Amino acid sequence: MRRSGRRQDMDTPDSGGMTPLGRKTAETGINFTSTTRFSRGLTFIRTHTLFGQSPTRRIIPQTSLLQENADPQKIAFLLRKQWTLYSVTPMYKFSYGNLKEYSRLLSAFVAAEKQKGLAVEVGNDLGIKVTLSTLLGLKGTDQDQVAILVQIASRSQLPFENAENKVVWSGWFCCISGDDLLESVPEDFTCLSLFLANGAESYTAIVGSWFQKTFDCYFSRLTISPLNLAWMAAMWTGCKVDSHMAATELVFSVPCIPQSLDISYAIHPEDAKALWDTVQKTPGEVTQEEVNLFMDCLYSHFHRHFKIHLSATRLVKVSTSIASAHCDGNIKILHSKHLIGVLTLLTELAISQIQ
């Protein structure tokens, strides 16, 4: 059952735990462990960085433009797909100069895992091809590490020559505007704290296992709290969109027996933007007080029309013209213009999860 709020004139305010990647993929027999090198590096980061604290204000990035060397085709590939989010600890001895060798080794590893552990010789024709490449131009600051795209392609088994490879899984690493963490990472570590995956979970587990074993890093699912979903609703509602604007939709979960109930609350984009403009006090930044006031106005409006207290429910999904995000850690980014801004917030959440 779903209930939706119809368009109304919006109220204006008054003046006054981490889940390891391997636990979800028991069928692959993959175990993720950390080593002494990794533990030592993580301990160093902990002593220089504050984690797990919800900020009282967030700065909106001054520039949302991609750098000039960005590949439009690759950037377009990242948009309008549902990505599952992971937090990744810094990688030990990762080298951008060895991407071709990493591709070769990971291809053999994926093929071996798909063949249930049978020995596979590196360099043989495996029917599986893994490619690691750079995502140039995807930076919030000049200090950010270069993002990495990982793709798994499977060659068609049809009996004719020159069969094209079909991409069956994709993932990418990035760390956008992560200057505070980068300053505290030891020299031998590369910080790409946010990982996004699209495709079968079995491939995600295999790729994650290889990276963890090779670079002494650790993957964990990145979920999004109702508080951070509220931040996203407020921040993304305030963004300007040149093309068609979609409704701002909030989905709330109501615990019920024997099954839960979802309530969908759709607000016309112009109404949502007008409300946010009355709430935001300082251009360029958003405060927790403003987010709370924005949500309280929406709750009040909904209660007046439907007699339901949304404050007693749990916010589980936010959809806007900029992006959509679910509490399970799934996201879809819709506009390249706001790609940097969305990834900046997600990078912050990924870094805060390192414990």
Automatic annotation (TrEMBL):
Keywords: Centromere, Chromosome, Nucleus. Residues 1-26 are annotated as: Disordered. It comes from the Eukaryota. It is found in: Chromosome, Centromere; Nucleus. Residues 1-10 have a biased composition (Basic and acidic residues). Belongs to the CENP-L/IML3 family. This is Centromere protein L. It comes from Chrysemys picta bellii (Western painted turtle). The gene is CENPL.
